[in-house]
Design brief:
- With about 600 residues, the protein is α+β, with helices and mostly antiparallel strands.
- The chain folds into four domains: about 220 residues, no CATH class; about 110 residues, PDZ domain (Pdz3 Domain); about 80 residues, Pdz3 Domain (Roll); about 110 residues, Pdz3 Domain.
- The protein is built from 13 helices and 30 strands.
- Strands 20, 21, 22, 23, 24, 25, 26 and 27 form an eight-stranded antiparallel sheet that branches. Strands 14, 15, 16, 17, 18 and 29 form a six-stranded antiparallel sheet that branches. Strands 8-7-9-10 form a four-stranded antiparallel sheet.
- Helix 1 packs parallel to helix 11, helix 3 crosses helix 9 and helix 10 packs antiparallel against helix 11.
- The chain is globular, with a radius of gyration of 31 Å.
- The two termini are about 45 Å apart.
- The model has no long low-confidence stretch (mean pLDDT about 90).
- It holds the Pfam family Peptidase_M50.
Length: about 600
Amino acid sequence: MSGLADLLSNTWGLILVVVFFCGAIFFHELGHFLAAKWRGLKIERFSIGFGPRLFGWKGKDGVDYRVSLLPLGGYVALPQLADMRLIEGESETPSDKLPPIGYWDKMIVAVAGPAFNVILATFLAIIVWIVGFPSSVQMQSRTIGYVFPTLTIDEDVTVLGPAAQAGLKAGDEILEIDGKEVDNWSDITKYIVTGSGRDSLDNPEVILKIRRGDEIMDVNVSPELNEINARSGKQIRAIGIYPGSPLPLGWINPNSPAEKAGLKVGDIVETANGKRVYSTPDLNDIIEPMGGKEVVLGIVRDGKTMDITVVPEVVPVTKALLQLTESNSESPAVWEFLPKYLDENAEETSLTAKANIVVFDAPISGKYHEMLPVGAVISKVNGQPVDSLETLQAALAADQGETTEIAFTRKGVEGVASLDGSFKEEIIPPTTRTLIGFSVDPGTVITYPNPVSQVRDQIEMTFLFIGSLLSPNSDVGINQLSGPVGIGRVLHTFSLQDLRLAIWFSVLLNINLAILNLMPIPVLDGGHMTIATITRIIGKAPPINVVGAIQGAVMLMLFGLMFYVMFNDSMDWLGDHEAEQNYLRDKEYQIPVNFSGKQ
């Protein structure tokens, strides 16, 4: 049944992608269509998509209503408005055979498409205003909950946290970023990512105005470029901070120190050992070194403040691993082997329990690449059967000779890896953490932003991004643009999470579409308006061959940009898929937390 539920859920998500994405395009073209009808222009085609016709019908009004092959937008073929043969195909009636139209006819028809997107955005914003916008409590905060001492900016590089280096602290309230007032964590993220500040050495810089206690101060922070997708290489500015929020307890683990100490669901943790805590990571930093020692938690229960003493317990949170490392090499090949226990009741950290031994990590380059791949199940080592970490270690530790033969099965196919040279095997003990045994659930807040503020905020966001894209001082590049693939993925994700998120995102989508189409670029609506205005000012139309050449060049650049963006979107998709697979793989390494129940 879960498979059927997933199928239905994904189908519903895809339907909503079509409705919201194609709906934005349809409404845009409908604006042009209705304005052209009103102003008496000849309309030849109404197309969703570009290129060859897939299907459609010929209306009684003579218009060819169609869906075309390339889902990169749409158009209404209006030969009196502009010569767009390169994009829309040959016209049935040459424009010089049709009566000319006036300046205001052109302006009204051109602006009608973006205007209809704004109308649709406003309608969707009204829906969001009525049904509400779901958000986490953290995203409504502007208080720093945690300052990361280090920041991992890609798979191989970890640096000191920029915020920590600048002296920011948990509890600091961010008031402004680069002179712009912030209302919530979304604003904070937005202004950091799109910032274009630089210091005297041309390094990225952001200026935060904060409140610390009764003092207001400016803090200069030097963001790092943080890789957010390994495949596309997409990077954004980051300073290494986490939002603060109240810490209400949402779950108490059985037999845990929290249960023994009398903590209850709904208790709100405010302090630990007398220190104010602003987030779960902030609390964890205090608890981690306190295994077996008393920690005094200041909590609020039913409006009353009280102290509860609890003794955190050090517990394993992962399985043990066996690591096999190539000896006598400057860049040694390394494998990690993970047990998948056959008995579901087996001790999760056991070395002797019967298990399928699976390759958990393997070299990604060099002569051993793909020789013994991730996911392979080990059956024998040098002829010795392997059915536990203990037997694997014993087989590898035995006299190997010059070659170690490892027999395995992967996806139903048997294979043998012949590893030349000497190797060292080592059991990596389970990772442990010091825990009290509860989870924090800050909860979800539903806001009801009025339609005007929604539309205004999305207009601001669009211009902010365009400004950063054009600024030589920002770190926003064209590789951070999203096309149909990226937009579709976001809509699909939001549709599966909460329909209200998809509606909210569609407000941004329509505002974005309206503003971009109004830019004074040939082939866009703003380009038509610009040419019409130039014609009105100079008293004659620019030479049609010049306009055609410019439109052709711009169209080639736009389609080139579109395909580049779609390629990047695809790389993002692949990178996100790989990250998801790594997450699922890492879950095999993790084990449920089991407390001893001892006080």
